[in-house]
Amino acid sequence: MRSGSTLTSGILQQSGKVFFSMEPLWGIYKRCYRRKHDVCCRNNTCRSPNGELEGLHVATGAISDIFNCKFDKLGKEVLSSFTFFSVSSGYTGLIKNRCFGLFRNKTLTELCLKYLTSMCEASNGVIVKSLRLSAETLTFLKDIVPDMKIVHLFRDPRGVLHSRKNIGDFIDKNTNISIYARQLCNRMLRDIDILKSSKIHYIPLRYECLSDNPNVTVRKVYKGLNITVTKLVEHWIENHMKAKSRNSGGYGFQYKNSSVVAHSWRYSLVGRARRLKILIFTYMRSGSTLTSGIVQQSGNAFFSMEPLWGIYKRCYRRKHDVCCRNDKCRSPTGELEGLQVAIAAIKDIFNCEFNKLGDKVLSSFTFFCESSGNTRLRNNRCFEFSRNETLTEWCLKYLTSVCEASSGVIVKTLRLSAETLSFLKDIVPDMKIVHLFRDPRGVLNSRKNFGDLMDRNTNISIYARQLCNRMSHDIDVLKSLGIHYIP
User: Fold this and answer.
1) Kind of pairing, strands 408-413 and 276-281?
2) What is the pLDDT of residues 40-69, one digit of tens each?
3) Domains in the chain: how many in total?
4) Among 221, 210, 232, 25, which Cα is nearest to 128's?
5) Is the pLDDT of residue 254 over 50?
6) Are 324 and 344 a contacting pair, CB within 8 Å?
7) Judgement on whether residues 234 and 293 belong to the same structural domain of the protein
8) CA spacing 20 to 30 A to 399: which of 150, 182, 200, 387?
9) Closest C-alpha among 237, 224, 213, 163 to residue 14
């Protein structure tokens, strides 16, 4: 688990019209896997099979039936995987029609089985991904599916464990990680030795090779499988493994540089003392999203977009007051708008201390989750007004783990003036500042097109005056403060 199997499966699915079965044995073994004589789990313990369901013949028979598109022979524990992993497999029709639920309707089940069978029989290939079989069981499977081709995917165990930790997948958080490491390394070595000593033809695939050099590695794998690399495959690799934007985390494809993802665990060894801290200080519609995206490609960066949005909305904080884009300033409203709250919030984000943040700041991580790459926060409804303590704790741990595993923290804000940065620099002395600005005419034109001018009846010269005054003031302040920054 967490060895790049979802990405690898995605690549193989581009070979043509294929039918994909993701983790068909999940419903039987859950967090364990089947060996020749016993069942072993990730906490380094093994046990005897639990009844006939966990028998080896059931597992090998199930995979054989899937390869042969015989879904009517499958038990409900195997069929449940098609619904549970329907999004990853591409069969969302199953979940919409509530297929293979606990209280099964015979007519509905029959329709669902026909749907799977028709999809499978119309395909030119069947791909089964499984984490729940050891190498020694493959000889039994090969006997009943002799034309089956095997890809053995593995990854640096440190990367595997780091990824499992980040998604909170350790069964017992009080157990020393060395126990999980021992189990994983023992399993990997055992599988490699068995495959080498057996007469089974297989293709070894190291995840790091795939992520670092996808074009060459994919061609080698496709050649081993006797499949042609088409333009569609090349296009998919370009979009899914070399892209600059992000998509959802967890169990899905990462639309970013795959090499950075594969080696992200190495950056966690850097630690807080050497973690880069970058503040992008700018104005709305000045190219800050593009700039943030470029800076994020420097490594495995954690990105916080507009953490002060929930506090100031359409305004920004100066040293003594709060000013808005309609050229009006006012006194801070209550303690929440105090300068110390804003400064402390950004410091806590740089230090990955999310448990210290208030609701208004935390809400930014959900509101801007698409831009920051943390869509799991939205999917899990993190930091809503009616907060569930257990859920909030999970959300905070998730943010902390992603942040601490990063090589740098980038904070983008439009809601601070330059004069406030001296206070921030005092408590985050190793922070680096990028001052991003744009021709004010371009900014105002973009804001107008975006529909962001507060009052369409107000002469645009008022907004222009406020923007130009703010930009000039910020430039003069930065020059006079002696703070090192990158204009």
Assistant:
1) parallel
2) 987 778 999 999 999 999 999 999 999 999
3) 2
4) 25
5) no
6) no
7) no
8) 182
9) 237
Here the CATH number for the domain that contains residue 94 is 3.40.50
Does one domain contain both 278 and 166?
no
| Mean pLDDT, rounded, of the chain | 81
The rounded distance, in Å, linking the Cα atoms of 24 and 77 is 8
Same domain for 314 and 233, yes or no, is no
- φ, ψ of residue 286 to 5 degrees: the values are -115, 15
- Which of 250, 277, 304 is the endpoint of a domain? 250
229 DSSP assignment: -
Per-residue model confidence (pLDDT) at position 6: 80
Residue at 167 is within a domain: yes
In-domain check, residue 261: no
Q: What's the average model confidence in pLDDT over 88-102?
A: 59
Alpha carbon distances (Å) from 351 to 260, 291, 292, 362: 22, 22, 19, 15
Overall pTM > 0.70 = no
List the structure tokens of 302: 């954690």
CA-closest candidate to residue 87, choices 369, 375, 371, 364? 375
Helices (H), 429-459: 440-450
Four-residue CA torsion sign, 307, 311, 313, 319:
negative
In contact, 114 and 70? CB cutoff 8 Å: no
**Which residue range forms the structural domain that includes residue 304?**
268-486
User: Please, is 401 exposed, middle or buried when counting C-beta atoms within 10 Å of its C-beta (0-12, 13-18, 19+)?
Assistant: middle
Query: Is 464 exposed, middle or buried (CB count within 10 Å of its CB: 0-12, 13-18, 19+)?
Result: middle
pLDDT above 90 coverage of the chain, percent: 31
**pLDDT (tens digit per residue) in 112-148:** 888 889 989 998 889 999 999 999 999 999 999 999 9
473 within 8 A of 418, measured Cβ to Cβ: yes
Residue 255: what pLDDT? 42
> What pLDDT is stored for residue 167 in this prediction?
66
In a domain, 259, yes or no: no
Q: Which of 250, 281, 303 is the last residue of a domain?
A: 250
- Assess whether 377 and 240 both reside in one domain: no
Q: Quick check: is 257 in a domain?
A: no
The verdict on 190 and 288 lying in the same domain is no
- Check whether residue 375 and residue 333 sit in a common domain: yes
**Does the structure show a pLDDT above 70 at 265?**
no
Q: Are residues 302 and 361 in the same domain?
A: yes
Cα end-to-end span (Å), the chain = 44
